[in-house]
Design goal:
four-stranded antiparallel sheet; elongated; 6% helix; single chain; mainly beta
């Protein structure tokens, strides 16, 4: 691919190579999920990987929810 532009290359590629926060896969009460560890034994849910279909409707398990790892 060739890109013709008057913009500087730093501006064109800005944000293209970003790093993702470290995530872990854990299972809580039969729900396998990806979480982003936070401080003090807590984690933020990134996504649910394997669980019964009705658990997807549980607001406590929605992406972005904070859970306790203890």
């Amino acid at each position: 691919m060739i890109l013709y532009t008057v913009m500087p290359m730093e501006q064109v590629w800005e944000g293209a190579l970003h790093t993702f926060p470290p995530v872990r896969e854990i299972s809580i009460k039969g729900v396998l999920m990806q979480v982003e560890p936070l401080e003090e034994g807590r984690a933020r849910i990134v996504r649910l990987l394997d669980c019964p279909l009705d658990r997807y409707l549980d607001p406590a398990l929605s992406p972005g929810a904070i859970i306790s790892l203890t």
